[in-house]
Amino acid sequence: MAAALGELVLKKLGSLAADQASLLWGLKSEIQRLESTVSSIQAVLLDAEEQSSKSHQVQLWLRGLEEALYDAEDLLDDFSTEVLQRKQMDGNGFVNEVCRFFSPSNQVAYGLKIANQIKAIRSKLDEIDQNRKQFNFQTCPVASQHERQTESTIPEIVVGREEDKQEIISMLLSPSYKEKVAVVPIVGMGGLGKTTLAQLIYNDDKIKSRFDCRSWVCVSETFEPKVLVKSILESMTKKKVEDLPLNVLKDLLHEEINNKLVLLVLDDVWNEDREKWIRFKGLFTSAAAEGSRMVITTRLRIVAEMIATETIVPHELKGLSEPESWSLFEKMAFKGGVASGRRYVELGKEVVMKCRGVPLALRSMGGVLFFKDTESEWETVRDRHLLSLEGDILATTLKLSYDNLPSHLKRCFAYCKLFPKDHEIEVKMLIQLWMAQGYVTKSNQSSVLEEVGMEHFKNLLWRSFFQEVTKDAYGNMKSCKMHDLMHDLAVSIAGEETICLNASNLTNSLLSSGNINLERIRHLSIDFGERSFDELWQVPTLLAKATRLRTFLIINVIYKAKFEGGCEKIFPKMIRLRVLGLRKVTTRILTSTVHELKHLRYLDFSENEMEVLSNEISRLVNLQVFNLRGCVYLSLLPTKIEKLHNLIYLDLDDSSLTGVPAGIGNLSFLRELTKFVVTEAAADGTSPAAGLGELKKLNNLSGELTIKGLEWVKDKSEAETANLNEKSRLRRLQLWWGDARIFKASDDDMARRSDLDWSVLEALQPHSNLKEIRLSFYCGTSIPTRNCWFSSLRNLVQIKLYGCRKLRSLPNLVPFVSLEELELQGLCSLEYVQSETMTPNNDLEFLPSLKCLAITFCRNLVGWSPKNTEDSPLLPRVSTLEITYCPKIVLLPRFRVNFERVELTAVSSDLLSAFGASLISPPRSRFHWLCLESVNELPQRLVAQLTSLKRLRIYHTTLSPSILRQLPSLQEFHIRDCKFLELDDYYYDDCDDDHNNMAPPCVLPSLRCLIVDRDELVTLPKWVQHSSNLQQLEIIRCDELKCLPSWLTKLTALKSLNVRRCGILSGRCRSNTAEDWPIVSHIPNIEVDFIVVQQNGCYLGIDEELHQQQQHQQEEEASSHTLISSSLLQNCFASMTCNLFQRCFLP
Question: Where is the Disease resistance protein winged helix domain (predicted)?
Fold first, then answer.
């Protein structure tokens, strides 16, 4: 670490020595002398760090050196900051500014002060340099380190494990287990590839086709049922789940997996508490269908034996065979993945033999040797390290991987100790943190810091220091994790100067016990996880003692925390801080003391409740990252924000800004500005707020940009000053006009506004590299097409048009071959999506990449084009279709039956007929999820396509009972306020047992979950008794249903009964003395009005005297979180949206 720090100090010294400021203040000679001393020490640091593992005295010497180098860096940063601040005082150059604003006496005084401080540090370093002679360190030449130029996608290299994979897959697919949910443990030492094997299984095509849904959860050391249930839900729904009580989370989980075949992978389990395991398993198995499976990976044999199903032996993972080991090493160590040169092969096989078949060790050693170009370098690795390996081969090998990193990558890796094990690290944030600490530097003036940082990340990824990388839709690296052993290595390397505290050790007793030396801490993170933020009151006290802190981060925040008054206590103590991250920490007023943090480069106040930002923030001239995302109470930025001329990232998304300060366009290094707001005063020139012209010079903007307040732009020429077509790095653009005009403007005003909006939009033509565009409340009647405005955006993958109520036509969509999502909402004047001339012949595929089509609240839309459905073009890949509140639509394009989800709400019978006619069945058709609301009869042609349907939800709908007999694959049936449950006459007239001696037909043979939510239901229909596979039954709001039928006892597969808000019926099922208990007692899991009556076949009993009180408490708790089940939430949101849009867009 000292070598990396020395390298950083030398770079700063070289930069300052060349600056005219050092000459002006008479500091150049002192800086050069200090540079000479540091260079002398730097030459022996590689050898000193190697010897430190064997000598305590060397460790103490290095510790003293690091302290002195830190002080030197702080002083040099002080000086460069002073230079920046004085440069800002005049725009005519530094020398002129100093002469005008500072007297000669002040210049001399400051120069003497800095000179004396440099002399003091040099004196300390000279003493350290003298002391090093006792150790006889050798000068080690720095090996040339060339960074690998990798592609944006890192290839996954997996060797072997095919036999293991097939063995476990056969276990998962086997129907011969007695248990409802069989558990298959994979056990083995760290680094063997348990996670990789589980991933191969999880993504196998046989597994995907067998199981209805899959979930992957990384457990690690925290095995709490509530946390696990929440993680499973997030894995399945791909959405963030609020922190809810366990019983509510359980309901959500049961709704999600109810009667489905589920594969659950729990990766890296350490829990040895059998009671916790049993409790969690019960929560999962009570709802999942029989035949569901769990795969567990663990290092501990005792855990594998504890959780294994009785008839399953844990799968013990071994090391790779010798040929497999060589194959993996060869791919990692040699250019092109193929060995070359006899001597290299000999040396490589010696290395492979020492790695003993451990994939992580093979990857790490291959990554080390990949960057060694000569035989002598390979021999050095072998002779100095591998031939003397003792003890833990894996830990020693990983340490060797670290030792062979370039010094700048060593610091980047050690810094990751700030994140807890199994933490999902945001790659973008990690690179920004590295930048703030000075670990990322430009190699030349044309370099871009974040691109250099990404190369650092890719190099560490290639060497296997990171894993499990996720990417966004465009292939950009989004998040990653560290293997547990790599995390252990980072902890040992970083030492006591980097600390990650969690909820279990954030206590005054621990901090005062001497286990943590607060005065030596440089980097501190606090992981609150599921912990209450009441603990946060300790933070100011903690930081007051950590006076040398450079990083303070709060991570894994769930509950927002009060931090009032804390700023005044801690800011004066944190003068060396480079990183301050207080995401979701409530601080309503950021006080004026913040300007004292002059070294600050990273400031994160996202999702904060602050209302005011001090103007003193503009004095933070080193600031690079300023994150205000989600600050919903913040309306204004500091007026002098232009002084933050080093600012690179300014995230304002989801904030309530009413404007942007003038001068923001002078931030020449700015590469990310997520939100820009035009105000009426700015447009009139009566306010210092920024107009669109401020965007003109910001051509390096990348990522996303939202421009709001476009209704205030007075003409086309003003819009042209934004210069959007020069911003080639933008990927997502959102343009917003004020929605208030919809309700306030007269027809004449709207006509004028329509012409103006059209010209403004034409002037805002973006670069052709754009991937996503969204227009909101645009009032033009068409979208500009001159100069290929729209057709030039051929790389678009997403188009969203919201509330554009005057829009009468859309541009030709034929050129958009990459378009994946098209969403039209509230387009009240649109009659056809495409004109007849724009639409290709019906034998051609149209929009070949389109996957999602959503058309909602388009009250005058007649269809896709004037062509009849049978003559319309084919959309071959649409898998998600939503049509909501479009009463006139009857003409559709054609679709292949390849749907994951179809949602039709308040549409006409003509549309349903057209939809049925539009369907083309490929050889392997798929139609998994259909949601119908407020619709009438389904046409037979559509019904015929539903043979593969697995989930059906119908609300406020009247359908023919005959439909049910044509749904052989249906597994989940959710009915709300529908009138076709009384199917008994239809099915039993011709199937009377006494007359025909034949059994009634099984209406829904695959049904596993039935949810009935209807006020008027008097009795459960008889056809339910023949659904022999039914496992979950929910009855909600059925006040007229007085009792359950006796034939319910015949449903032996039934595992769960939930009765909720059913008046008399609830009382008849509430306890083992209630009237209907003999009918339901065979059901293992029974819940009545949020009270668990029976669990896993064990009657829990209920105290009738306390029942009312408990019920009231449960309902209040659920209500406080606004969510009882995802279906109820969706329905509520849909109703609210419906009411709003009906008022806005319907007659």
Answer: 418-490
The owner of tokens 């105290």 is 1103
DSSP secondary structure of 77-99: HHHHHHHHHHHTT-TT-HHHHHH
Residue 1057: predicted pLDDT: 94
CB 932 within 8 A of CB 904: yes
What is the tens place of the pLDDT at every residue in 41-66? 877 777 777 777 677 888 788 888 88
Check: CB of residue 994 under 8 Å from CB of residue 1017.
no
Binning pLDDT at 50, 70 and 90, where does residue 957 land? confident
Cβ atoms < 10 Å from Cβ of 1030? 24
Q: Measured between alpha carbons, how far is 807 from 783 in angstroms, rounded to an integer?
A: 8
Task: Say what angle helices 246-257 and 225-237 make with each other, to 10 degrees.
Answer: 40
Least confident segment among 11-25, 145-159, 1057-1071: 145-159
Residue 740: band (very low, low, confident or very high) from pLDDT cuts 50, 70, 90: low
Largest CA distance in the chain: 116
Number of neighbouring beta carbons within 10 Å of residue 796: 23
Q: What is the mean pLDDT of residues 507-515?
A: 51
Q: Can you tell me whether residue 867 is helix, strand or coil?
A: coil
Estimate the crossing angle of helix 104-131 against helix 28-42, to 10 degrees: 20
| Torsion angle of the four alpha carbons 693, 697, 703, 707, in this order, in degrees rounded to the nearest 10 | 0
* Residues 6+ positions from 567 with CB-CB distance below 8 Å: 587, 589, 590, 591, 593, 594
Sorted by sequence, the CB contacts under 8 Å of residue 854 that are 6+ apart come out as 821, 822, 823, 824, 825, 880, 881, 882, 883, 884
For residue 180, the 8-state DSSP code is S
What's the mean pLDDT in 290-303? 85
Q: Which residues of 1107-1130 are buried (b: 16+ CB within 10 A; e: fewer)?
A: beeebeebeeebeeeebbbbbbee
For residue 94, with 0-12 CB atoms within 10 Å meaning exposed, 13-18 middle and 19 or more buried, which class applies? middle
Which tokens in the block code for residue 1128? 């109820």
Determine the residue type at 782.
S
DSSP code string of 635-655: ----TTGGG-TT--EEE-TT-
65, 128 contact by CB (below 8 A): yes
Under the banding of pLDDT at 50, 70 and 90, the label for residue 669 is: very high
Contact 536, 503 (CB under 8 A): no
DSSP codes, 772-825: EEEEES---SS---GGGTTTT-TT--EEEEES-TT-------TT-TT--EEEEE
Q: pLDDT band for position 543 (50/70/90)?
A: low
DSSP 546-595: -TT--EEEEES--S-EE-TTHHHHHGGG-TT-SEEE-TTEE-SEE-GGGG
Q: Which residue's entry shows tokens 């963030």?
A: 240
